[in-house]
Amino acid sequence: MWMIYGANGYTGELIAREAMKRGQRPILAGRSAEKVEPLARELALESRVFDVENPQLDGVQLVLHCAGPFIRTSRPMVDACLAAGAHYLDITGEIEVFEAVMARDAEAKQRGVSLLPGVGFDVVPTDCLAAMLKAKLPTATELWLAWYAPRAAVSPGTMKTMLEGAGYGGMIRRDGKLVRVPLMFDVREIPYSSGPRLSVTIPWGDVSTAFHSTGIPNIRVYTARSPKAVARLKRIAPLMTLLRFGPIRRYAQKVAEKRTGPDATLREAGRTYLWGRAFHASDEVTMTMETPEGYEFTVRSALAAVQRVLGEAVRPGAMTPSTRFGAEFVLAIPGVSL
């Protein structure tokens, strides 16, 4: 028996509906009865209503945690999973969350529990790409990863999570350590398979996970932006520090709740283009990858991860997707090409 916590959110509901189509019967959970229970009735699934600080995990083997911002919700859910002996999976992309979960490896092994953050678009494709690049160039000391999503749209939950850390600038990994850098620390053209695009560094989850997956000590992650968007971001960058103040950040997150995620047409038709480069001195290797649209990919990869964890022998500890399932895991997701 497994549970989707945050099942009433944009991504959680997509996963719940697809799980039902596949004949799976997860428990749907969240903190709002008026949001969770109607969905559970519609899908004829069991529901539980509780705050993340007081989880109800009786009889649950695995929790797929979909309620962000994860910087606020991950730790209590991990605590509850360790106490209950339930495996923990989530769809976070937050560097601080990855680092916090990885630090609990010894606890997870002692309890016989798998802790597996980032089983969605953040960070399965890039994490697996990083592992493939490392395999091709074991001596690599630098890793650059990048992605481009045409016509990308984000859900309310994703935007609220982005706003949580937006006031603190960017982040890279330098000589094995996480280092704060300014927003758009580096701007360069990236040769995606769909064509070259101007791209900027972002504090993406792989700044944490790719290090744990590959041991490569210097890591940057980029995303494509139009020249106009880059110019606009440069103008507003000084104002972003205002988001460090709680009242301003909470107001912005409240506004973000009015957003809607991509509709079914965009999810079904959308593609994401990824590029990676591993290098050391004069040696380098590059690869490109294409995946379904980000939320569509997350639905598919999260359910694949749940199936693998429940269907295979227990491997306790804190792991990244590629260290748990292997670098080829991403290639088993429908719609992915390398």
Helix fraction? Answer: 25-40%
Bin the strand percentage.
15-25%
- Counting DSSP H or I runs of 4 or more residues, the number of helices is 13
General form:
globular
Low-confidence blocks of residues: none
Supply the helix-strand structural class: alpha/beta
> What's the pLDDT, averaged over the residues?
92
**CA-based gyration radius:** 19 Å
What is the topology?
Blueprint: E1 2-5, H1 10-21, E2 27-30, H2 33-43, E3 47-49, E4 62-65, H3 70-84, E5 87-90, H4 95-102, H5 105-111, E6 114-116, H6 124-136, E7 142-148, H7 156-165, E8 170-174, E9 177-181, E10 187-192, E11 195-201, H8 206-214, E12 218-224, H9 227-236, H10 246-256, H11 264-269, E13 271-280, E14 283-292, H12 294-311, E15 317-318, H13 321-325
Parallel strand pairs: 1-2, 1-4, 2-3, 4-5, 5-6, 6-15, 7-12
Antiparallel strand pairs: 7-13, 8-9, 10-11, 11-12, 13-14
Helix pairs in contact: 1-12, 3-4, 4-8, 6-8, 7-10
